[in-house]
Amino acid sequence: MPASAPNRVLALSEKVQEALQITKRGVEELLIEAEFAQKLARSEQTGVPLRIKLGLDPTAPDLHLGHTVALNKLRQLQDLGHIAIFLIGDFTSMIGDPSGRNATRPPLTREQIEENAKSYFAQASLVLDPSKTEMRYNSEWSDPLGARGMIQLASKYTVARMMERDDFSKRFKDGIPISVHEFLYPLMQGYDSVALKSDLELGGTDQKFNLLVGRELQKDWGQEPQCILTMPLLEGLDGVEKMSKSKNNYIGIAEPANTMFAKLMSISDSMMWRYYELLSFRSLAEIAGYQAAVAGGQNPRDVKVALAQEIVTRFHSAKAAEEALADFVNRSKGGIPDDIPELSLAGAPLPISQLLKQANLCPSTSDAMRMVEQGGVRIDGAVISDKNLKVEAGTVVVQVGKRKFARVTLS
């Protein structure tokens, strides 16, 4: 028979109520709040920490600030004394998560997964306390399942229930193929919760269905069902799409301090508050104070600088944040950064489009021509408007846009 929560309702101490408020800050949904409050109370009474699970599939080699929305919450729960389980989905990555997609996602190869996973924990440790983090790979229990175990697991869920997922139902209605293996993804993610005896699982709003599957499977295995905490999806630099490396609207947590600072300064004034809400460790009262100050006439740029410095300090250092600010101010005044790439090219006189491509300042000559036409190219500080320009031999500082520089010696 499935286990059920203890019948006796525990009183919530001030400490538990405070922990509940910390847990709820900036989240989309906590299900089921009353159950989680009782888990917290029982943990306080028994001294047994809760097991808090966050799983990430290593689909790319780097983490970005969008990933840290959930990582920050995991760190807060870790600081409250609970066990943080950082789960690398090396097995589920080979299936491919269909969440929020309107087409089958190509599964990754084992080699791609292993390569991407190498840097995940090191980067996550910039947010989490590694000494208090349990790092696991779901291949530990998924590989031993074998064909028999997979069939038994598949028997726990019906096709009708799978089709309750928005992305599956929409694809079916639109006649877009759904591969049978995609049904295995939420089952395998749910089985992770069984294997880890998870008390709470974190995930983005697009993961809600998968998190709920975990609750149901735990009941089947006689465990008390986990609560689930869905986190908002952070919009990228475009302010529209969710942050994603594939959409090139991301801020990587392993990026250089100057790049990270400049990208943060590029977000809109309105989007800045969203970033404060989901990324800042400042108190809600302090953020409200910033909002009041801006409403009263303070330049929002000053408040954005404070946010950029906070984030850069977190992933680099306070010194790096100060240097990044100085670099940003210098660039905004038309100055040239100190640490620009230097390279030598042959072929003078070289067409400006070729120079920009060979200097890795533009991906193609056509893109280079377009940047010249838009007034986005400078040589030694002067805007270049002639897309047919040929650059003579010598050393010049070439700038494309606001952030790309190179000192080129042409012969």
CATH class of the largest domain: Alpha Beta
Question: What class do helices, strands and sheet pairing give?
Answer: alpha/beta
| Global Rg | 25 Å
Per the CATH scheme, the topology name of the largest domain is: Rossmann fold
Query: How many individual helices?
Result: 17
Q: Strand arrangement, largest sheet?
A: 1-6-5-2-3-4
Which word captures the global form? globular
Point out poorly predicted stretches. Answer: 1-5
- How much of the sequence lies in strands comes to 5-15%
Query: Kindly state the mean pLDDT as a whole number?
Result: 87
Q: What profile does the largest beta sheet have? A: 6 strands, mixed
| The CATH architecture of the largest domain | 3-Layer(aba) Sandwich
CATH superfamily of the largest domain: HUPs
Euclidean distance between termini CA atoms: 80 Å
* Secondary structure: number of strands: 13
Task: Estimate the helix proportion, in percent.
Answer: 40-55%
Order of helices and strands: HEHEHEHEHHHHHEHEHHHHHEEHHEEEEE
Write a concise synopsis of the structure shown.
This protein has 17 helices and 13 strands. The protein is of the alpha/beta class. The strands form 3 sheets. It has a 6-stranded mixed β-sheet with strand order 1-6-5-2-3-4, with helices on both faces. A 5-stranded mixed β-sheet has the order 7-13-12-9-10, covered by helices on one side. A two-stranded antiparallel ribbon has the order 8-11.
